[in-house]
Amino acid sequence: xxxxxxxxxxxxxxxxxxxxGESFSIDKSEKELQLSVRKTYDLYHYLILLLIQxxxxxxxxxxxxxxxxxxxxxxxxxxxxxxxxxxIAQLRNNDQFIxxxxxxxxxxxxxxxxxxxxxxxxxxxxxxxxxxxxxxxxYNDDKQFVIDVFVNEFEDWELxxxxxxEQSIYWNDDIEFVVNMIVKTIEKFKETKNNPSLMxxxxxxxxxxxxxxxxxxxxxxxxxxxxRVEKYTKNWDLDRIALMDIVIMEVAIAELTEFPSIPxxxxxNEYLEIAKYYSNLKxxxxxxxxxxxxxxDLYKENKITKTGRGLISETKG
Length: 317
Prior knowledge:
This protein is mainly α. It has two domains: 4-11 and 23-187, no CATH class; 221-316, Orthogonal Bundle (N-utilizing Substance Protein B Homolog, Chain A). The chain has 15 helices and no strands.
């Protein structure tokens, strides 16, 4: 589930925290990285839980209406399509999901206003009306509805961002990524599979190892790589260069020199994308220019060694 771009981003965040706050040892930095990654996985399950809680709220509301002293025909015969949604049932009864929720004790009902607001947002939407008014309803219709909820309701929702920030400092930056991962998860669900798989924390062991090595190598080569940055920023007041820009370049240099199987262009492009999101408008061009000069030096010093199909030529620059 956790992409390499997100791993890179979280390493940049951990190292930036080193510069702006408490100084971390390598071991402490590694633990902080692991915690940050785990929090993203928590959010993946929490947003699924929030949808299930909202469906439960709708079911409870229907039951209260049905038991009124003078119920209307609508109260007695509510549209239960959303409650009977087969994909939501698969999520609710998923063994991985249930085990995770129990193990990590995610918040369940501390924020009823969030559940109520999500309920109202869904019920007011055009996709909900289309879903419940459809004369027939297939499994794919159920799946598309759940996808529509996540795509339309969870991003750029101020109340959600506010409450998530209260619960974890790690969560707000991850919402867009996590929603995308949930959508990809649901897209793979099949009606014939009673217990479809949720995403694992890491795609594979290599990705987990990538994060550990990149963080450690960046910290161990910090002084050397800071000198490389300073060499090409000597006409700048280093104190006025954004700390985030410096951190991004240091991590990029470590990846360029320590990972033979990752193409140079991939590394450069990844950190330029991170700079677009976390630094100022001019940082992208600035970082690109500095890294281009540092890369030329690394080639001259034979610090760039790329192996694998199509990568040998990159060693020569």
